[in-house]
Design brief:
single chain, alpha+beta, Alpha-Beta Plaits, 5-stranded antiparallel beta sheet, about 30% strand, globular
Length: about 110
């Protein structure tokens, strides 16, 4: 199992919409995340900085393959078409990232 921490900005005028979308997350998208070995997924909001922090655990054997499989899912693509316009990627993220990955510096089970 590998833990991931990620961060992205959120457009202030989209916060209410983003929260509402996630209060009613689509079952097909959640099922695809589970099928692709994503577990214990959480998103936190920090205001007034307007940052989203995502945390999840990956329990599969090939993250790149599972992430690509999820990205190819039509329902997930429709979901992202709603959520992506709410987000504002960090300008200093790595090439290919939407959510910027963070370094884990401490963990306690």
């Amino acid at each position: 199992m590998k833990r991931f921490g990620t961060v992205i900005g959120i457009r202030p005028e989209k916060i209410t919409e983003y929260k509402e979308l996630h209060r009613n997350a689509w079952p097909a998208v959640l099922a695809k995340m589970t099928e692709c070995n994503f577990r214990n997924f959480s998103i936190y909001l920090k205001e007034p900085e307007n940052l989203l922090f995502g945390y999840f655990e990956y329990v599969g054997d090939d993250f790149a393959v599972d992430a690509a499989r999820m990205a190819q899912d039509p329902e997930t693509q429709k979901w992202w078409a709603l959520t992506d316009p709410c987000q504002e990627p960090l300008t200093n993220r790595k090439v290919g990232e939407w959510w910027a990955e963070m370094e884990e510096v401490f963990h306690l089970d």
